[in-house]
Prior knowledge:
Blueprint: E1 16-17, H1 47-58, H2 62-75, H3 80-92, H4 96-109, H5 114-126, H6 130-143, H7 148-172, H8 179-189, E2 213-214, H9 276-295, H10 299-304, H11 317-328, E3 334-346, E4 349-360, E5 364-375, E6 381-388
Antiparallel strand pairs: 1-2, 3-4, 4-5, 5-6
Amino acid sequence: MQAPRPFSSAPALRRLACAIGLGASLVAPVAAQGSAPASTAGAVSTASEAAEIQRLIRDGQHAQALKLIDDALAKNPKDPQMRFRRGVALSMLDRKTEALAVFQKLVEDQPDMPAPYNNMAVIYGAQGEYEKARSALERAIRTNPAYATAYQNLGDVYAQLASQAYSKALQLDKSDPSVPPKLALLRELTSGPIAAAPAAVATTTKRDPASTVVAAAPSPAPPPPAAASKPPVVASPPPAATPPKPVPTAATPPAVVASPAPPPPAAAAKPAPAPAGNQAGEVEAAVKSWASAWSKRDMAGYYAAYTPEFSGQSGSRKTWEQDRRDRIAPRKQITVEVSDLQVSVNGERATARFRQSYASDSMSVVSRKTLQLARGANGKWLIRQESAGS
Length: 390
């Protein structure tokens, strides 16, 4: 029996605060919802600090964000929102042990913040410790019954536990024909990495939503009926104050400064970004090319559709590639169809949401899927995160 795989973005625990999907990548800025409690108002970081940290996390500059966070905590060591941001930044830097310690200490001091529990669950899931993940998510839900992200992550945890149970049953009795299809379906549903999604950082008030390294935080409205939320994503902390949200703008290429002398040979300049309409078309073409390579069982083309550092829930690129080869290559036929494709582009990043119809000689599944893409150095759009769900 194969060792349990880490949770997917998730795919698996999909909503981890800002970047660790239970086994997935994670990073997504979050907007603040609600101000810090009066008891900690003196410790809240300035709006400018929070806005700059938010920008750095959004741009993937996690090491720089961590430095600013540490500087702020040197002045206000008890600031719960800045401590949460620190856990998110560490998660994004793949320093899971340190991030877990930050979240554990934070829930000791701020037991009414649901986001740290969710992020702890995502880390546990990435390590294959699903019982601990389940316990943390149940605690998050008790703290905030309207936390939809925690409910969805909990469902993913149960799916992983079910997969383990079916694997054990198959190991003990290989003659039962009803087990393999169930196991295959569960593995297919949890194969994608947990995608990071924007989330809001919760304060110590139970009714406030919490951000998670994996999923979007619930709104303070009364608990809605149990409905599936977007894939778990590690939520990034929101700014401490409520200044106007910066409007993302496409980065402008640096101006060329004329020089009296001929400049030395230099690397080719990065092509200027294409108009938004063209970019959306390029992303759509990239998604369809990925689906085509999967359908043809063209492993080289399939791998090339992802960023070089993509590793899914497997921990390493090599392990992920072997895992996908083991699932795809043996099939006699595979058909992957993409429909209802919706693309949004923001600078060098893009999101594609669509309805995926997968069919092979062993199973057939229709589900919603989300791909997070980034433009590579050669201008090609590559998948950096993938998750099941809308």
